[in-house]
Design brief:
The protein has helices at about 55-70, 75-90, 95-105, 110-130, 165-180, 190-205, 220-230, 240-255, 275-290, 310-320, 340-355, 410-420, 435-440, 480-485, and strands at about 20, 25, 35, 45-50, 135, 145-150, 155-160, 180-185, 210-215, 230-240, 255-260, 265-270, 300-305, 360-365, 365-370, 380, 380-385, 400-405, 420-425, 425-430, 445-450, 465, 485-495. It is of the alpha/beta class. Bound molecules: nicotinamide-adenine-dinucleotide.
């Protein structure tokens, strides 16, 4: 958990709880708890149970027991409950955003966006209740009708990270529910309040007991036990590639359905014909939004040599001027990192960049821990001039660090952009429509932006990446329905005789 010098001795009553089978209760099997602290101030916010495998068992059993009734409840009616939850989220948007900023640090504008993403997702999948389209098609045989329909998968385990504490759980919960599945959510331990707030909203909206369950605890115990549980039919995981590959392996062994949304090393290209002011705004937002802790964060900027000097100088100047502080302050542009551990990781990369990669540090590179920053996990916005093969230009840092790389041509830019193990998001700033079209064709990414930063996905489009960013599934939009449902092909023969597909000789009469 977060380490903080300022361990205020605030005592909570046996705190907020797991939610299993429609009841909020403390882990019945573990006395251990973890603290939830504000990464900007060290303030103790809440305490949650460090649950055990037995709690996972109880939650999966509750989800299993409620599956039959929920899957038979009409999808349109399920959608009405989702719509009610959307209205509750709208009413509470401001306080939910404040709570989120308090527990994970990103600025209020961004946490409001996070809640808005949950609202949009609820709205989108509520509507799916009256669609969930299958196909009707022809048959090769006479007097035979063919169609395909979506079926629920069963009990789904949802394992989520802390950087989008409400948006990412909502991306999983809403499509899962509309398809008729029941779920157990294991949120990241840095953002337990936001997960609780979302589940409270679902409960109030009328989601029946046992349909949504929430279990807190460590990834390597609770998360792993959940993914491994024999009654869990599907694991939807968002997090690091290192953990994702373990979860994938676990699921692969027992042929369990598994959706993995993992890391990124995203690049923004700035061509010599770009609107440089626009590209600069995009770069700042992409690199330092959410303090660089986004899977889609811009961590490399590939700049054409003709504009490199001008662009890099402007970027450094603007990065230095960013107002850093507590995200609750509306003037602050960049909050703290989520934890001391995350700050140490970022600093290790920065030190490696300076000493081993021999990248040129253009600004930043220091921990901020004096004065107003004393109690939080702050770090300077950091800009390096580097080269494509450097470790800091290859590995996901997940902090406010961006590497500038000089390129000579469009072809070189695309080749450098593609030269990582990840393939989540890529962006290009250019006024040349041909280059824009070629970028769409040639970027090895799940998301491509033209004249926009690498961040800014919308909920009705597919979200995810290629290569080691995932295992080929997509969240959001209609593709998410393909994770949370199974296709069933249906044949209705009304000929009154045995017709043998591929073996009948059918002739016109
Ligand atoms: P993480 O992999 O450390 O943890 C993610 C979740 O997995 C947490 O709930 C954690 O408790 C759980 N977990 C940890 N070990 C586990 C195990 N052995 N078995 C099962 N569950 C386990 O990631 P994080 O630090 O929370 O999030 C940051 C990472 O998430 C970054 O790599 C980022 O790129 C990625 N991310 C990806 C997307 C995407 O959609 N592609 C979105 C957001 C974040």
């Amino acid at each position: 958990m977060r380490k903080n010098k300022n361990k205020a001795e605030i005592h909570f009553e046996a705190g907020p709880y797991n939610y299993i089978g429609g009841k909020w209760s403390h882990s019945g099997n573990s006395k251990e708890v973890f603290e939830n602290r504000n990464p900007a101030t060290g303030e103790l916010l809440s305490v949650y149970p460090q649950s055990s495998k037995k709690d996972v068992d109880c939650a999966v059993t509750a989800a299993k027991n409620s599956l039959e009734a929920w899957r038979k409840f009409p999808a349109a009616k399920r959608g009405e409950i989702l719509l009610k939850s959307m209205k509750l989220l709208m009413e509470r948007k401001e306080s939910l955003a404040q709570g989120m900023t308090r527990e994970m640090g990103k600025i209020l504008k961004e946490t409001s966006g996070d809640v808005q993403e949950a609202i949009d997702t609820a709205f989108y999948y509520a509507g799916e209740g009256r669609r969930l389209f299958g196909q009707t098609t022809t048959s090769e045989l006479p007097d035979k009708f063919s169609m395909s329909v979506r079926m629920p998968v069963g009990v789904c385990a949802l394992i989520t990270p802390w950087n989008f504490p409400m948006a990412i759980p909502s991306w999983k919960i809403y499509p899962a529910l509309i398809c008729g599945n029941t779920v157990v959510l294991k949120p990241a331990s840095y953002t337990p309040d936001s997960a609780r707030h979302l589940v409270e909203v679902l409960e109030e909206a009328g989601v029946p007991a046992g349909v949504v369950n929430l279990v807190y605890g460590r990834g390597d115990s609770v998360g792993q036990a959940l993914a491994d549980h024999p009654e869990v039919r599907l694991v939807s995981f968002t997090g690091s590639s290192a953990v994702g590959s373990k979860v994938g392996e676990l699921c692969g062994r027992v042929l369990k359905k598994c959706g993995l949304e993992l890391g990124g090393k995203n690049a923004q290209i700035v061509m010599e014909d770009a609107d440089l002011d626009l590209a600069l705004e995009g770069a700042l937002w992409g690199a330092f939004g959410t303090t660089g802790q986004r899977c889609t964060a811009t961590s490399r900027i590939l700049i054409h040599e003709k504009v490199y000097k001008n662009f890099s100088e402007s970027l450094v100047e603007r990065a230095r001027a960013l107002k850093i502080g507590n995200g609750l302050n509306p003037h602050v542009e960049m909050g703290p990192l989520v934890s001391e551990m995350q700050r140490q990781t970022v600093d290790k990369y920065v030190q490696f960049g300076k000493k081993k990669d021999r990248a040129k540090l253009l600004t930043g590179g220091e921990i901020l821990n004096k004065g107003e920053y004393e109690k939080g996990f702050f770090y300077q916005p950091t800009v390096f001039a580097g080269a494509p093969e450097m470790k800091i230009a290859q590995e996901e840092i997940f902090g406010p660090v961006v590497i500038l790389i000089k390129i000579k041509s469009f072809e070189e830019a695309i080749s450098v952009l593609n030269n990582t193990r990840y393939g989540l998001s890529g962006s290009i700033y250019t006024r040349d429509v041909n280059r824009a079209m070629r970028s769409i064709r040639d970027m090895e990414t799940g998301i491509t932006y033209i004249n926009a930063p690498t961040i800014g996905a919308e909920v009705h489009l597919p979200f995810g990446g290629v290569k080691q960013t995932g295992n080929g599934h997509r969240e959001a939009g209609t593709p998410a329905l393909d994770i949370f449902s199974e296709w069933k092909a249906v044949y209705i023969d009304y000929s009154g005789r045995l017709q043998k597909a591929q073996m009948e000789e059918v002739k016109p009469k």
